[in-house]
Amino acid sequence: MHPSRHQTPLAQTHSHLRENRAVASPLALGIDFGTTNSAIAYLQPNGTVGMVPFADGELTSRSVLFALQHRTRPGRPVNIWTGGAAIEQYLATGDDPDLEASRRFIQSLKSHLTARELTGTEIFGRQYRFEDLVARILTDLRTQASQHLGYEVTTALVGRPVQFVGAQQSADNDFAEQRLRASLEQAGFQDVRFAMEPIAAAYAAEQHTPQDGLLLIGDFGGGTTDFSLLRIRSGQREVLGSTGLGIAGDAFDAKIVRYLIAPALGSESMARELGKTLPALPAWVYANLERWHTLSFLKTHAVTNLLRNTQRRAMEPEKIQALSAVIDHDLGFLLHRSVRQLKTDLTEQDTAEFVLDTEAVQLRQTVQRSTFESWIAPELSRMEAALEELLTQTGMPASAVDRVFLTGGTSLVPAVRRLFTTRFQEDRVRSGGVLTSVAHGLALMAAER
């Protein structure tokens, strides 16, 4: 594996850090390894929390990995990038014909930690364990933290959800945590401890509104939603209960694809077959559109032939042709970036426009916020049920909750926030640090341990 041109080789980094150890000392460090974004926070000697910056000063790094094989170069070298550099390289190489079938983009690895059947994958003829892929992202996070802080980081408090995506029982959560620990150790962390992400968010919340009483935390990530109820008394925190479920922002994105984009690409189209009128394509083709990184699974000769034959028989051949273009030109990332932009726009206005404008495919459609909310109604119901479960298990009515703190990008969705303002009233609901509050709280927690 070769480092990104935006990153320092790990061996070189360690040498640089050894030279600076005399002027640096370990700080309490918290790492939020997220489904979509990751963040690192540390407690500074003056008691304030600092954030490790990434490319262009961003306080988060995308939890993604991109592999590229230069097939026309001697030795066919493989380069691997993570974070923002991975996205940059993915976009920069998308139109290079010499790189066809030599690009691999992987994201949402955290969502697969419970999947025992997913042991690894092959990339350009080399087998990688699942833990290898996670460790590569974590290695670059550790390197960035080490460079910023001036010493070799080997200790951290790492966040984990109450329920990992796909967990059906406690053994699944244990398996996922063990897998994450193994990846962290492979990445060079020698002392790893875990803390529940909503509890970490509670520490951050106290920085916003420090006061005694019952504090409810709602943490909405890319793959998981967690709730915790704490009693705050004279600076002491008692966790009364926690609940979680494996749905969040990614599930909302999938619904936009299912109801808005897939029909424009033929999911509801029909085709003529042996004198009958049947669905043009099987549902599994469109299921792979709902998670953009699985779009690459469709780039096979078998699917290419299926689409070519279907287009000849389809009653709306232009839609099948558009789907073929999305697959052939690896437009999954751009398509889902437009999906997220639509979701963001709908948090601020009642009507927004979905736009995908490329040379190969142009899609444009206006969406009402009320329509979007109807698409995600089942997910909202499950979130509300998990919240009700927490109040029931702790024996606390909504009226007893003094403050509510919401964090995570999905907490900005108006329909999500409305679940809380309706039940707890607007003046008790606060938000803050939607992408950094968990890491912020982890650093504060690490300082106490």
Distance between the termini: 36 Å
Please tally the helical runs, counting DSSP H or I stretches of 4 or more residues: 14
Binned, the helix content reads 40-55%
Sheet with the most strands, sense and barrel status: 6 strands, mixed
**Low-pLDDT windows of residues:** 1-24
Shape call: globular
CATH architecture label name of the largest domain: 2-Layer Sandwich
By CATH, the topology of the largest domain is Nucleotidyltransferase, domain 5
Average pLDDT level: 88
Q: What is the name of the CATH class of the largest domain?
A: Alpha Beta
CATH superfamily (homologous) name of the largest domain? ATPase, nucleotide binding domain
Structurally, how many domains make up the residues? 2
Tell me the strand percentage band: 15-25%
User: Count the strands?
Assistant: 20
Structural class: alpha+beta
Radius of gyration (CA) equals 23 Å
Question: Which descriptors apply to this entry?
Answer:
449 residues; alpha+beta; five-stranded mixed β-sheet; six-stranded mixed β-sheet; globular; Nucleotidyltransferase, domain 5; single chain; 24% strand; 20 strands; disordered N terminus
